[in-house]
Design brief:
Elements (H helix, E strand, L loop, with lengths): L3 H14 L6 H13 L5 H11 L5 H13 L4 E4 L5 E4 L6 E5 L5 E4 L2 H4 L18 E4 L2 H6 L1
Helix pairs in contact: 1-2, 2-3, 3-4
Bound molecules: zinc ion (ZN) (2 copies).
One zinc ion binds next to α6.
Length: 144
């Protein structure tokens, strides 16, 4: 897992390479996704950024995360509740998903990350992208 500083540096470099202006809004949106650590949805990102930039619109947040995804700065995946969630951790990693509250946490499972995907007829460039491991999170386990 990269630190905030490494992540911001990578972010700024990628923006420069792609000729994307590093604006206050973009920086805040990126930081919000990174700091949240729980893979926020666009609505959640908007709620965080809105506290710092009250004039930002949900639409702008949508467009910003879209741009980030195209630049490979964030990854998008669909949570079990059907909403898209965003992740600034773009290294191969797996997700622990709580079956009760829907919480999503990163885990690094070396053995799995190194697993070779079996070849499938006609397909190429197969990589293990992400695996969902379901269970009960700590908070839900304690409530049980
Ligand atoms: Zn839970
Ligand atoms: Zn993740």
């Amino acid at each position: 897992m990269q630190t905030m500083k490494e992540n911001m540096l990578q972010f700024e470099n990628a923006c420069r390479e792609q000729g994307l202006k590093i604006t206050h809004q973009r920086v805040e949106v990126f930081k919000a996704i990174h700091k949240a650590k729980d893979h926020p949805s666009v609505e959640e990102i908007y709620a965080i950024v809105n506290r710092r930039i009250p004039s930002i619109s949900l639409d702008t947040v949508y467009r910003t995360v879209d741009t980030f995804e195209k630049l490979g700065l964030v990854s998008r995946f669909q949570a079990p509740d059907g909403r898209f969630r965003f992740d600034t951790n773009i290294d191969i990693h797996q997700h622990l998903v709580c079956t009760k509250c829907g919480r999503i946490e990163d885990i690094h499972w070396d053995g799995l990350d190194r697993l070779k995907v079996p070849s499938v007829g006609g397909w190429s460039d197969l990589v293990l992208a992400s695996v969902e491991i379901k269970g009960l999170c700590e908070a839900c386990r304690k409530k049980n």
